[in-house]
Design brief:
167 residues, alpha+beta, Thiol Ester Dehydrase, Chain A, 3 helices
Length: 167
């Protein structure tokens, strides 16, 4: 190995922690959030700015169980699940800051000004943008906007609180 190669090996950056990463894949999301299929509603995180902003992606597919009954012949993603995707993205942002997150849950404490602008259907890709309005050690208030093909599909302000998991 040349001296140059050795220098590059010894100066390599250590693996980034969840708090420092700017993107997260599904495995990393599952290490942060307790949700699992069919209720894990974000597939990838493409942008994180600590304690300020997160952008996540949700790929909407026809095989998701809610489409069987909402609505047969005209599948539309329930609005409450879109708002849940906002909360999960915000939860991923909040929980990256919590060292003992495996002992905590993030729960909804409020939904305000929710508006649904465009139906979300199978084949759509949601771009879930969440901006922090207020941050405390155990609670957060966030503005979420969900975009499909550059058009606003949903917006809501959500508040969530960090609680201990039952033993």
């Amino acid at each position: 190995m040349s001296a140059e190669d050795q220098a590059s090996v010894t100066t390599m950056e250590p693996e980034q922690s969840a708090m420092e990463k700017k993107t997260l894949d599904i495995t990393e999301i599952q290490a942060i959030l307790p949700h699992r299929y069919p209720f894990l509603l974000i597939d990838r995180v493409i942008e994180i700015e600590r304690k300020k902003r997160i952008v996540a992606i949700k790929n909407v597919t026809a095989n998701e169980p809610h489409f069987a009954g909402h609505f047969p012949g005209y599948p539309i993603m329930p609005g409450v699940l879109i708002v849940e995707a906002i909360a999960q993205a915000g939860g991923a942002l909040l929980l990256t800051e919590i060292p003992d997150r495996d002992q905590k849950l993030m729960v909804f404490t409020g939904i305000e000004r929710a508006k649904f602008r465009k139906p979300v259907t199978p084949g759509d890709q949601l771009r879930v943008e969440v901006d922090v309005l207020a941050w405390r050690a155990t609670a957060v208030r966030m503005q979420g906007n969900v975009w499909v093909d550059g058009k606003l599909a949903c917006e809501a302000i959500v508040t969530c609180q960090l609680v201990s998991r039952p033993a």
